[in-house]
Design goal:
The structure holds 2 protein chains of 2 kinds. Chain A contains 1 helix and 34 strands. Classes of the chains: A mainly beta, B mainly alpha.
């Protein structure tokens, strides 16, 4: 071999080695990203326009995505594979986030003022409920391109839209706050949406939710004692008023934060709902919707969320009682425990099988994690002004 | 001398009438109030006061409104609407301080 040939061979070896090292590094980097999504979630940092990505197997923070705008009252839904979160911001922003890559895929500003959204049962459409201009806009979940615009106009006036959820039939149900109506929009043909309207449901419905696994849709009323119930198995039967007159004609207490119906579920055959202007939780039989009990609690309830097996319902409260969380014992219908997670508790989220509950304490800049069985604190995650907590298990639940 | 004194008193009285500058509200309380405004008022009016369930409270939106009406709205709420009364925790002067913050624009 000539010396030149030897040198060339050595060079070849060297570049092979470099190539090999490069491949090894690349493979290990990829191994880090190959993971499932079942234990992922996001925590909204409402004042920083950011979401933190977490995993609940080891209870750690694994990433963050910035630049999401005004996230007061932000909420999120997930793609059916749990990989993408769609975050709805107050400022009308709709952001699609890749949880695996921890990056923003696309962000659009689709309205002046928005309140939340839903993903269709088939995962192909994202619907957003807007305050300004009042209505619902529907986007392609893949591209976030607009596919339908459904103004919420009743008697010549636009209405704010709340309580938007998807049904198993591929429709969206929502409530018109100003007009006091429930609408069901069938968007099988997005260009020709078919809308069924249920007017006269009551004054100032402030939120709506599906309960009983999607069987019925219930809207809470701010302007009256009671709730409006629509049986989604038989919408032709119309909207019915339930739990009316729960205030017994007494002057309601002021409400420093509107209750939220998200998370309201059946526990032990009963539905647990926040009263409005009363420091009570209302309990109704899910079959008849007759009142079963009222449970006196620490303040104006905001969220009432059942542990996945329904054994407990955890409740947080409006300002100025918002440093407290109470745990309702479902069999006895009594407050069993009172916890003080810290200043300004905003939201509660259970892990899918109920081994943990995550609680955001906004003015502590912390998310605290408890064991619902022992009430022991399992850990905490630092976050700037955390509000909503959303786990990917929502991807597989109707109405979440 | 007397004129100077009464001028001084007038300035002091004028300053006292302007809680916008935070006289009489200590720094810790001001930071509590600022947080209350963005976070707790923000839960209905939007963190940036662009509106939510409650109307926008941006400087332009309030331009036509009297200070007195706004202070009263904050202290007594608007019965029949979700706007709650804050008198249980805010003084007149603190409500006026919040109105001043709203008029100059939050953040």
């Amino acid at each position: 071999m000539t010396s030149r040939a030897r040198r060339a061979a050595r060079l070849g070896m060297k570049s092979l080695l470099v190539l090999f090292l490069f491949l090894a590094v690349a493979a290990s980097a990829m191994a880090g990203t190959v993971r499932g999504t079942g234990d992922l979630g996001i925590v909204v940092e409402r004042a920083s326009g950011r979401v933190v990505i977490i995993e609940h197997s080891h209870r750690s923070r694994i990433g963050a995505v910035d630049g999401l705008g005004d996230l007061s009252h932000a909420s999120a839904v997930f793609s059916r594979d749990g990989r993408f979160a769609y975050v709805f911001g107050r400022d009308g922003g709709l952001s699609k986030i890749d949880l695996i890559e921890a990056k923003l895929v696309r962000r659009i500003v689709q309205a002046g003022n928005a309140i939340g959204g839903a993903i269709s049962a088939d995962g192909r459409l994202i619907a957003v409920s807007n305050y300004e201009p009042g209505g619902v806009k529907i986007f392609d979940a893949e591209s976030l391109d607009l596919v339908a615009d459904l103004p919420a106009e009743s008697n010549g006036q636009r209405s704010k839209v709340v309580g938007l959820v998807e049904t198993a039939d591929g429709a969206f149900v929502y409530t018109l706050y100003d007009a006091g109506e429930i609408w069901i929009a069938d968007v099988a043909e997005p260009a020709r949406p078919a809308i069924r309207k249920f007017p006269g449901i009551g004054a100032f419905p402030y939120d709506g939710v599906t309960v009983d696994g999607g069987r019925s849709y219930v809207a809470g009323l701010f302007g009256e004692d009671g709730l409006a119930l629509l049986d989604l198995w038989r919408p032709e039967a119309g909207v019915r008023r339930v739990l009316s007159g729960y205030g017994r004609g007494e002057e309601p207490l002021p409400v420093y934060k509107m209750p939220h119906l998200e998370g309201v579920t059946v526990a032990g055959g009963n539905v647990f709902l926040p009263a409005v202007g009363r420091h009570e939780l209302l309990v109704a039989d899910v079959r008849t919707w007759a009142e079963v009990a009222r449970i006196p609690v620490h303040g104006q309830p905001v969220f009432a969320v059942a542990r996945p097996d329904g054994r407990q319902v955890w409740v947080n409260f409006a300002h100025p009682h918002n440093d407290t969380v109470q745990v309702i014992d479902v069999p006895s219908l009594k407050v069993a425990h009172t916890l003080r997670p810290g200043k300004a508790v905003m939201h509660l989220e259970f892990t899918p099988k109920g081994d943990q509950v995550w609680i955001s304490a906004r003015d502590e800049d912390l998310v605290r994690i408890y064991d619902p069985r022992t009430l022991a604190e399992l850990g905490a995650i630092a976050a700037e002004k955390p509000s909503g907590i959303f786990f990917t298990a929502r991807a597989t639940r109707l109405g979440y | 001398m007397r004129a100077a004194l009464s001028f001084g008193l007038a300035v002091a009285a004028f300053a006292a009438a302007l809680p916008a500058h935070g006289e009489g509200i200590d720094v810790a309380r001001q930071s509590y109030l600022a947080n209350l405004l963005t976070q707790d008022c923000g839960s209905c009016h939007g963190l940036t006061m662009k509106g939510g369930l409650g109307p926008a409270l941006l400087p332009a939106a309030l331009a036509e409104r009297d200070d007195a009406v706004l202070v009263e709205t904050i202290l007594d709420g608007r019965p029949g609407t979700p706007m709650p009364p804050w008198r249980f925790e805010l003084s007149q002067q603190e409500a006026a301080w919040l109105v001043a913050r709203l008029r100059e624009g939050v953040r």
